[in-house]
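Hello,

Our lab assistant flagged a job as stuck in the queue for most of the afternoon. It eventually completed. Since we weren't sure the result was trustworthy after the delay, we are filing this so someone can double-check. Below is the sequence as submitted and the structure that was eventually returned. Let us know if re-running is recommended.
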Amino acid sequence: MKNILIYNYGLNADDIIKTTDGYRFYEGYQLFFFNKTILKEDTINYIVELLKKHQNNYFKFIINREGKYLSKIENETFVLLKPLVSENIELNLRDIINNNINVTQKLSELDRSSWSNLWSKKVDYLEYQVSELAVDYPIIKSSFSYYVGLAENAIEYFNAIDNKSQNLVLSHKRIFYPNVSKNYYNPATIIIDYRVRDIGEYLKCYFFNSDETINFNDLIKELELNNDEYNLLIARLLYPSYYFDELSDILEHKKSEDNLLKYIDKIKDYERFLKDTLNILSKKAAIIKIDWLL
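-- returned structure --
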């Protein structure tokens, strides 16, 4: 790998460490990530040009000796990233709210704003996967129908929102908790979506992964959105992306189905959180009612 980096980028890498998605290394005091990617060259060019127009902390794509962002190494495609800030800065909800980069000319390949269509396809795909592969997974078999019901509720709620003509912004495929800069400022994970996507995913990750005792009511009160965005946020919170992501890992990568228990054990707590959120947001906007959460 050291010779590959010298040849392709002229970088004399030190302390090369293999990671789950590629490599990390230093040249002098500068950290770099050399990650596998499925992005196309045109998509990276689009992201680079968009980021150039805004002051931001997203890591910088580095071109190789051929003037391209993508490098083919043994039948895999890699991209080199140069962090502009420390990799372990933790970003909170306020940071996410303030990190808005509006998109006026969207790239369809990155657009994830058709939630109803995407969620319906995901449910159909997982129903097939579970029927074929979950015979020996009792936890999946006993819990899956509940989360399909949540997803269908989210789809129905999204479809009931009259006006979804909101500005689209740079968003992220996944939000993690803790939400550290190494993940959040990785431009290879960028997509285009409503700005409440990242907010909703952060709240869900926080709920299921934080050991802190915090008043979620206070956290929700930080939000200053418009009427449609509040309703979009409810749809996002209803959709069980956390369970579906874990389910996919179990079925595709043979992980333990016990990983689902941290979500299943908090079903009632999360339903109370949804109910409290609806009550809080109802004081700010015309929120669509959900009968089973009244």
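-- support follow-up --
The delay was a queue issue, not a problem with the job. The result is valid. Residues 2-82 form a domain with the Phosphorylase Kinase; domain 1 fold (CATH 3.30.200.20). The first helix runs from residue 2 to 9.
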